[in-house]
Automatic annotation (TrEMBL):
MF terms in GO: metalloendopeptidase activity
Cellular compartments annotated: Endomembrane system
Entry similarity comment: Belongs to the peptidase M50A family.
General function of this protein: Zinc metalloprotease that mediates intramembrane proteolysis of proteins such as ATF6, ATF6B, SREBF1/SREBP1 and SREBF2/SREBP2. Catalyzes the second step in the proteolytic activation of the sterol regulatory element-binding proteins (SREBPs) SREBF1/SREBP1 and SREBF2/SREBP2: cleaves SREBPs within the first transmembrane segment, thereby releasing the N-terminal segment with a portion of the transmembrane segment attached. Mature N-terminal SREBP fragments shuttle to the nucleus and activate gene transcription.
Enzyme class: hydrolase
EC number assigned by the record: 3.4.24.85
Protein's GO biological process: membrane protein intracellular domain proteolysis; regulation of response to endoplasmic reticulum stress
Species in which this protein is naturally found: Macrostomum lignano
Keyword terms: Membrane, Transmembrane, Transmembrane helix
Main location per the UniProt record: membrane
Gene Ontology cellular component terms for the protein in this record: cytoplasm; endomembrane system; membrane
Statement: the UniProt record of this protein carries the keyword Transmembrane helix: yes
Name by which UniProt lists this protein: Membrane-bound transcription factor site-2 protease
Domain Peptidase M50: 11-91
């Protein structure tokens, strides 16, 4: 209902793996307790993959309640262990990726770019590039990249130190050609979202002294050759801190990357820098793909979710779940000699557990369809 279509293989694969691991736990525990496994296999019900184990009921009846309890709890235990193992791989992905030859990139490796994105192109990014800075903010990981972008757009537009002789009084320029202010002193302006001109000819209006002075200059030359500043005091004598004339939600951003090509110059809003690319912290070896670390991460997240859910669900005292047999074995251990009391407690707890599970499913469906 709510999964991206490209996540369907992860979902079905994780579901099958968790089911097999669950039933494998029952089979191993049964073999340990000398209980025969009559049949085992996998099935597909519609699109739902699953697994099953058929244990010999006569052997189960002959062993003690404690031994039966081990067999019935084994599926829950194996799902719990599987979920914990997937959590460890999410925390330490290098344990799995390092033996395959992946290395930490000390930056954010670009693994995907949206088709037609202004971030790609001759002076832009390519899959395999390692982003190392956003403006003056160093990037050492994918999360660091997003933090740097957030910081850039939360702060005032970064300025650059320009010699005062480059600036003219604003009154000497023609009136602005657009309400955004980006064409304030550049008749031909920069109409694109990224500076992709290899000759660095894309020009922007730079304002200083509160807008009283301005200059129309090549954006790349200013960003790459002039020191960055936040205020006039950051600049040497004879220079002023000039900022690009952009609207309140846009920023001129320099994204530095390795290999050492000219930095990407981006002029636009934050969502383009957030959602037009995918990043990883691992650099692949020659024969392995860029996308494998992200695929493993996604798969581990599904395994954590589904294996944990199977463990919790099967531990619940409900009809047709492992919890039904776990409850019966527990009561055989705890209530000895009073079969009537044991049956009463068994039916009461099982009915209540099944009713609560049914109520939970109804509330989930109500939330799904009404919210």
């Amino acid at each position: 209902v709510n999964l991206p279509s490209n996540h369907l293989p992860y979902y079905l694969g994780a579901l099958l793996l968790c089911g097999i691991f669950h039933e494998f736990g029952h089979a191993v525990a049964a073999a340990r307790e000398d209980i025969r496994v009559q049949a085992a296999g996998i099935f597909v019900l519609g699109v739902y993959p699953g697994a099953f184990v058929d244990l010999n009921s006569a052997d189960l009846a002959l062993v003690s309640p404690a031994r039966r309890l081990r067999v019935f709890c084994a599926g829950v235990w194996h799902n719990t262990v599987l979920a914990l193992g997937a959590i460890l791989l999410l925390i330490r992905p290098a344990w799995l990726l390092a033996p395959l030859g992946y290395s930490n990139a000390s930056g954010a490796v670009v693994t995907w770019l949206a088709a037609g994105s202004v971030l790609s192109g001759q002076q832009g990014l390519y899959p395999g590039d390692v982003i190392v800075r956003v403006n003056q903010c160093p990037v050492v990981s994918p999360s660091g990249y997003y933090n740097c972008v957030a910081g850039v757009f939360a702060a005032e537009q970064q300025g650059h130190c320009l010699h005062r002789g480059l600036l003219l009084p604003a009154a000497s320029h023609p009136p602005p050609l657009s309400s955004s202010g980006t064409d304030f002193c550049c008749r031909h302006g920069n109409a694109s979202s990224a500076d992709s001109d290899p000759d660095s000819a894309s020009r922007l209006c730079f304002l200083a002294d509160g807008g009283a002075a301005s200059a129309c200059l090549p954006a790349r030359a200013v960003v790459e050759q002039q020191p960055a500043c936040a205020r006039a005091s950051d600049c040497p004598a004879g220079a002023v801190c000039a900022r690009p004339a952009v609207d309140n939600v846009s920023r001129l951003v320099s994204v530095g990357h390795d290999p050492a090509r000219p930095a990407l110059l981006f002029l636009g809003e934050a969502p383009e820098l957030y959602y037009s690319l995918a990043l990883s912290e691992f650099r692949p070896p020659a024969l392995l793909p860029l996308w494998l670390p992200a695929a493993i991460d996604t798969g581990m997240r599904y395994i954590v979710s589904l294996s944990g859910a199977l463990a919790l669900l099967n531990a619940a005292p409900c009809y047709a779940l492992d919890g039904q047999w776990i409850l019966a074995a527990l009561l055989d251990i705890l209530i000895v000699g009073d079969a009537k009391l044991r049956r009463t407690v068994y039916k009461s707890v099982l009915t209540a557990g099944t009713g609560l599970l049914a109520l939970d499913l109804l509330l989930a469906l109500r939330y799904l369809y009404y919210y």
